[in-house]
Amino acid sequence: MASEYYYLNHYSNRGKMGIARKAFTQIATIATNQVQNASVASRNKKFLFHLDRPVSAVFRKDGKVEIKLDVSIKRGVPVKDVCADIQNHVADAILMMCETVPFSIEIKVSALH
Q1: What is the CA radius of gyration of the chain?
Q2: Do the Cβ atoms of 62 and 78 come closer than 8 Å?
Q3: In the structure, what pLDDT confidence band is assigned to residue 50 with cuts at 50, 70 and 90?
Q4: Of the candidates 14, 45, 76, 97, which lies 20 to 30 Å from 111 by C-alpha distance?
């Protein structure tokens, strides 16, 4: 079973300090929803399929946290610019709250609204 915590290497023998996977997904969700013309894709039951987790955090073996986002973007706006804005907001939020964690952000546009 994969670990639900990203453990920080703080070079002391006083115990471990970890950040929950859910914390990373919440940070990314809040930051994405603050971007104008974008939001985290919702579970839509009227389609043949629906997203189980529109935001996920994967802890890689090399120590990096991979944030994957499925987003919905307003129709008629430049998708590339909005995606870059999402990446910047999410990166700033993670850096502000978890400054020593290496991460990457992957965005998939799953809907236009």
Answers
A1: 15
A2: no
A3: low
A4: 97
Place of tokens 């929803």: 33
The torsion angles phi and psi of 88, rounded to 5 degrees, stand at -65, -45
CB 101 within 8 A of CB 23: no
pLDDT at 57 > cutoff 80: yes
Is the distance from CB of 38 to CB of 78 less than 8 angstroms?
Answer: no
C-alpha distances in Å from residue 5, one per residue of 1, 17, 89: 12, 9, 23
* Nearest Cα to Cα of residue 106 among 92, 34, 93, 90: 90
What amino acid is encoded at 45 in this protein?
K
Q: Which two tokens stand for residue 81?
A: 């610019």
Q: What is the per-residue pLDDT across 11-33, written as a single tens digit (0 to 9) for each?
A: 677 777 889 999 999 999 999 99
Q: Which pTM was predicted?
A: 0.85
